[in-house]
Amino acid sequence: MLERLDVLMAWCRLKFKPKKPRSLSVRKGKIDATTTFTVANQQIPTVSQEPVKSLGRWYDSSMKNTKRGLEAVKLATEGLCQPSTDVAFRVS
Asked: pLDDT tens-digit profile of 6-17?
């Protein structure tokens, strides 16, 4: 299927940027690290090689939410500990 897309993109005079997308192959409920995908004779990096951020959330090969929860708590505590100079109070 990727080969056919490559042919169609060449016909349209467009190019794929294989460094931008990420691939993830799952077989029988487990991540398969041996499968590679190629477009325009270049390998698409896997999520385990280069994690990707989409809609404010990081995706990596672990695919578990426990690590994301810990990161959210860490960011929240860092944000609360920083003194804010943007807030101005007006006393009338």
From this structure: 788 888 888 877
